[in-house]
Prior knowledge:
The complex is a heterodimer of chains A (about 425) and B (about 150).
Chain A: H1 7-10, H2 14-35, H3 37-46, H4 67-72, E1 86-91, E2 101-105, H5 106-122, E3 130-133, H6 141-153, E4 156-158, H7 165-175, E5 179-182, H8 184-197, E6 207-211, H9 217-227, E7 230-237, E8 242-248, E9 255-257, E10 262-267, E11 274-275, E12 280-287, E13 298-307, E14 319-320, E15 325-326, E16 331-333, E17 336-338, H10 340-349, E18 356-363, E19 366-374, H11 384-402, E20 407-411, E21 426-428
Parallel strand pairs in A: 3-4, 3-5, 5-6, 6-7, 18-21, 19-20
Antiparallel strand pairs in A: 1-2, 7-8, 8-9, 9-14, 10-11, 10-12, 12-13, 13-14, 13-15, 16-17, 18-19
Helix pairs in contact in A: 2-3, 5-6, 8-9, 10-11
Chain B: E1 5-13, H1 18-28, E2 33-40, E3 44-51, H2 54-63, E4 68-78, H3 84-94, E5 99-107, E6 112-119, H4 121-133, H5 141-146
Amino acid sequence: xxxxxxxxxxxxxxxxxxxxxxxxxxxxxxxxxxxxxxxxxxxxxxxxxxxxxxxxxxxxxxxxxxxxxxxxxxxxxxxxxxxxxxxxxxxxxxxxxxxxxxxxxxxxxxxxxxxxxxxxxxxxxxxxxxxxxxxxxxxxxxxxxxxxxxxxxxxxxxxxxxxxxxxxxxxxxxxxxxxxxxxxxxxxxxxxxxxxxxxxxxxxxxxxxxxxxxxxxxxxxxxxxxxxxxxxxxxxxxxxxxxxxxxxxxxxxxxxxxxxxxxxxxxxxxxxxxxxxxxxxxxxxxxxxxxxxxxxxxxxxxxxxxxxxxxxxxxxxxxxxxxxxxxxxxxxxxxxxxxxxxxxxxxxxxxxxxxxxxxxxxxxxxxxxxxxxxxxxxxxxxxxxxxxxxxxxxxxxxxxxxxxxxxxxxxxxxxxxxxxxxxxxxxxxxxxx
Amino acid sequence: xxxxxxxxxxxxxxxxxxxxxxxxxxxxxxxxxxxxxxxxxxxxxxxxxxxxxxxxxxxxxxxxxxxxxxxxxxxxxxxxxxxxxxxxxxxxxxxxxxxxxxxxxxxxxxxxxxxxxxxxxxxxxxxxxxxxxxxxxxxxxxxxxxx
Lengths: 433, 147
């Protein structure tokens, strides 16, 4: 039997959902216009007033927000409540230019927790479960998001955070963890380790909630088999709150969007034109209940398809398919957002040329980032020691900027193919999309 | 400035055929190698060689797209018998001269063993003095071409 965390909302009639969306959108637009000088300017420039937004049907009149806008308004330009009402900051990794900072009021956290609680409940967990949260805690939204959701469900919550696999396994065994929340690649790694150590029969895992990076169905089957669980996908962005923007139900045929909090649109990434449900395009979200940091028409750059058909799980909320790609060059490696431009900036700063190649692969279900960098006459030295020392500095700088480790390979000068026009800088061998 | 020998250092990727390509280029331009040694790291290596015409070699390498440089190194004759190399190294040790890298070769025209070595820039002068104090002459580029 399907369980719901907030059945009256999750299974509400479509007209009711539309009504909520309209009311909340109108209110949010007003508050944002009055409090965020940055978005006010965008609306003024587009010639849109608050009075033009009377219902969700008017959403298309509002200007888009892009990641670039977050950079320009960093840090407080899009905040829509006074600091005194905000109680939390979360952030993505990355350099100042690419890092996303999000603010939360108490109510924002409360609603975010509700979203995660819906996901946890849809996956089948109850207050009788032991929820093992192996997402990183801290600035990353994964850990604290699922943690809050698990509290709401009333499950016994284990805030293990990421890393230290030995300890993870020890806790799992000793405490009988039943629900595992982490990135799919870490789940795959744990599954591998558990298989090697022959621990499967000693564990009580039955459910996995995995998100923050793209994963294939093949990977899902592999994890499910090795851990003896059913694995569920969860979607979210720090910009909108974190995990729990959308989640899978028992049907596992797309992720239900928490539409009472986030309005989803699909647009043509080239023209910005809104496309009907069922068509492939870029996913755009508007937060309509957030107080501190409500982004309107935020372009996620995720390419996907919306499905508004009724789901047999009983939920009436629209579903989004697995993202099919990106409309920008962002890569998600080990759950961390990586932009080629960040890598380029580090190379230039270190005196290397902007000719490089990024190769992302998945080895034993774990992402590996390799960067081929050309040796230059200026960086060349007659001794291995000097070249290696410079390489080490580069690797450390990359780690500091990207937040993850990248293997650097020095290659011959001018050996990376310079194609006419746009260079092929990225080779993603993971076939995720 | 002490008498030094011009060594050519070339950056090569650690892949099959890289050294073959390099030597092919040299042979096409009739460049004669007196010595060749390779220092290797994980992904790349540095080929160090002494050739009959360093300037021309550098031009050829650059035109072919190689990253290369000329490094001054020191060369001395070594007694070609047990203890010959030790004799020289002991002299250096006494005066605290540190060798960063070295390689030896045997010549056929002027039969004998020779040691090529590199010390830090700061130590080059000192190394030359130490050797001269001990009556060990440094070999010049021109002399090297004749042996």
